[in-house]
Amino acid sequence: MNVFDAVKQSVTTRQAAELYGVKVRRNNMASCPFHKDKTPSMKVDKRFHCFGCGADGDVIDFVSRLYGISSLEAAQKTALDFGIYYDRKTKKETSKKAVCKKSDAQIYAEAEQHCFRVLSDYYHLLKKWEIDYAPNNEDETWHPLFVEALQKKSHLEYLLDILVFGEIEEKSLLVMEYGKEVASLEQRISEFICREAETGIGSSQ
Questions:
Q1: Which of 11, 55, 138, 160 has its CA 20 to 30 A from that of 132?
Q2: Closest Cα partner for 63 from 35, 2, 21?
Q3: How many other CB atoms are there within 10 angstroms of residue 99's CB atom?
Q4: pTM of the complete model
Q5: CA-to-CA dists, residue 199 to 121, 133, 147, 193, 204, angstroms
Q6: How far apart are the C-alpha atoms of 115 and 118, rounded to whole Å?
Q7: DSSP SS3 for 17
Q8: What averages of pLDDT result for each successive group of 10 residues across the chain (205 residues)?
Q9: Alpha carbon of 11 to those of 18, 57, 171: distances in Å?
Q10: What pLDDT is recorded for position 189?
Q11: Contacts (Cβ under 8 Å, ≥6 apart) of 21
C-alpha cells in the first residue's frame, strides 16, 4: 500500500486538523485556517469543506494546504506523525530493480567469462615463467616458477580448451569446480604483477 492510500484509510481530516492545532467543535465545525474566519465556517470530518472560502479536499489536501507543501510531502508527514506504516518502494523503484536484476544465465555467463580470463592470464604467466626462469645450465637448481610452469601449463591448455570448445555441461562443471581456485589465482596474479613492476622482470619470489 502506498503512502497516499495508507494515510487516507487511517486518518480523517478532523484527526489531522486537531493534531496540527485546529480546534474542531462537537458539530465538526472549525475556524478555517485558510482565510480570516471570524466565525467557524469550515466543516471538518473525513474530508473538509469551507463554506466561506470554498477550500475543499481530503486529509492530504488539508495538510498540504496547511503547511504549504506538496501532496507527497503532506502524505509522508501525516504518515510519520500518526505512525502509519506504508510501502516506501514506488512503482518506478520496483520496476527499476526488476530491470536491473540479472538472470541466472547472465550470472553464469559472467562467471564463465571471469574464469576464462583468470585462467588465460595464469596460462600466459606460466609460458612467461617457463622462459624467464629457465635454468642456464644443467647443474643449476630449477626455479620454483619454472617447475610450476612445466607442471601446470598443459593442464591449463586443457581447461581453456573446455571453456572455448566444450559442451555447456562441461563448462558449467569446470566453472563450479574451479571457483575458489580462480579467486585465489586472480589474487596471486595481481600480487605477482605488482611485485614484478616494482622489482623488475626476473625477480624471485
A1: 160
A2: 21
A3: 7
A4: 0.46
A5: 20, 15, 21, 10, 9
A6: 5
A7: helix
A8: 90 94 93 91 95 93 94 93 78 54 82 91 91 88 92 91 89 87 87 77 46
A9: 11, 14, 59
A10: 87
A11: none
Helix (H) or strand (E) holding 64: helix 59-67
Retrieve residue 194's grid coordinates. Answer: 605488482
What are 62's three cell numbers?
A: 488539508
Cβ(10)–Cβ(86) below 8 Å: no
The one-letter amino acid at 69: I
Q: Would you state the cell numbers that stand for residue 41, as one nine-digit string?
A: 465556517
Distance, CA of 187 to CA of 133 (rounded, Å): 21
Which triple of cell numbers denotes residue 198?
A: 616494482
Strand partners, 44: 48
In 3D space, the residue among 119, 130, 196, 189 whose CA is nearest the CA of residue 156 turns out to be: 119
In degrees and rounded to multiples of 5, residue 157 shows phi and psi of -60, -40
Structural contact between residues 60 and 77, judged by C-beta atoms closer than 8 angstroms = no
How many whole angstroms separate alpha carbon 142 and alpha carbon 152? 15
